[in-house]
Amino acid sequence: FPALALAHGLGVIIFRKLSGIIDTIRRLQQALMLFLLPVLVLIAVLFLAFLPFACTEALWATGKGSLMILWLQALVLFFVNGVYQDEFEERPYPLLVHRLIYFGILLLPVYSIISFHGLSLRIAQYGWTLDRCWAFMVWAVLTLFSLGYLWGIVRRRDQWVRTLGTVNISMGLVVLLLMVLVNSPWLDFRKLVVASQVGRLDSGAVDPADFDYYYLYRNLAGPGYAALEALGKRYADSHPDIVARHIADIFAGKGEVSTISAEAFAAQVEQWPDNRALPPALETQLREAVGMQARHAARNRQYYLFRLDLDGDAIDEYIFLRAGDGYGFADLYYLAGDEW
Q: Is residue 84 within 8 Å of residue 161, measured between CB atoms?
């Protein structure tokens, strides 16, 4: 800590004497934004121009449609502030380019509508999550910025740059207020997510066997823990298998061994090149590994076991693959003496 503090202090002293270099770097960055802003606005305008002729399902099929829309909106707003920050009377562009840019800003609320639609679809399908709560907060901030700039353009036309300061200061206060609220009990995203996910469970939108109990435990802190306890009591009589495989296993902790039956193991694990009988000690280890993954059922749904002689010693090694949505984990099992 003393070394880091000393290095930081020395850095401040050095850069105080090199303010000219910092100004040069700032001007270079501003020049790059000056060139990139018209291109970015042109991309935004062309996207909306061709959207009526394209299927919006292709955008949502990427799984990142709302994220891309929000990023484009944020970059346009950021670059506008990076370019128009000096003298209001000086226009950095010819009048035609200047008007192209504020025409692009006029269209930003349309991007807000598109991203709102995409986020709403995800929430209708899967309910609220922490990521979606933050995404909606970012959406709200960007939308208010866009509406504020739109108000300035409608009011001042070519002189709309004069309203940037007013909008930015007002939005700065809004952002500060939001940061206070999300760190207070009045706007606790975790409670909102718990209510949404448990509500989907109660309404029958998701089957109790497919519910992601581990998400409550891992991501939602106290509210998630309380919800798990309540679900454990609720399902104690009606769904004892769910309590045993998911909820009880979470509360038991990672250190407790959870072994599934041989029949369940054979049904869940696909072997290659064939379903040859496994060495008993290895099968026990793999059954424990699959059993401990039971609480991750929503993340790790497929298991594969590959039998290969990797080192040419006529003794097979085994690669155990746990495949999830777009990723996988592989473990190599080999015989060392009498132990796998």
A: yes
